[in-house]
Amino acid sequence: MRGGALPPALLAAALGLALAFVPRRAIAPGAAVFAGVAVAVSLARIDPAWADAIFYACWASVIVTALSVHLPRPLGLRAGVLLAANAGLWAGAVIAAAGAPLDLAKALPWVLICLPASLLVSRRMGIAIKVVASWLVAVSVLAAALPTLIPTPGYVGDHMQ
Asked: What is the chain's alpha carbon radius of gyration, rounded to the nearest angstrom?
């Protein structure tokens, strides 16, 4: 789960789920800030030595963003936009570090999951969104932890190398 469109797409999906719980007036600015920051950061040149730190930060951002759906009170406009800026920063950084520009085009539309998700929240079926967000947390924890815990060919050298 290194490089490509998958980490930014999961981050965009987590943001879309989080935007389903913000006030409706915060959805469009949040999605726009996410896309703008992601595109701007993806154009930056990033030293390959920073790739591991960027991936860990991306997975941490997926976790924090997905967990925001479990807050007792919904995020407001400012917090929603700040969450979107953070998600855009790390999505763009992953693309700049190890992806292709087309990968960002594949990942950005996932933020639009906020539209059907907000419909479910408005119909008092937000628990389904919380279950999906919890799944994203579990996947992100595994994606961040497994490469460092289990020597797998391609991730960590083993005794034969």
From this structure: 16
Q: End-to-end CA distance of the chain, in Å?
A: 23
Q: Write out pLDDT tens, residues 90-129.
A: 999 999 998 788 999 999 999 999 999 999 999 999 999 9
Is there a contact between 54 and 97 (Cβ–Cβ < 8 Å)? Answer: yes
The answer to whether the CB of 17 falls within 8 A of the CB of 114 is yes
**Main-chain phi, psi angles of 17, to 5 degrees:** -65, -40
Predicted structure pTM score: 0.89
Asked if 6 contacts 104 with a C-beta cutoff of 8 angstroms, the reply is no
Cα separation, 136 vs 63, whole angstroms:
7
Q: Which amino acid is at 63?
A: I
What DSSP line would sit under 141-158, residue for residue? HHHHHHHHHS--TTTS--
Angle between helices 27-42 and 6-19 (to 10 degrees): 160
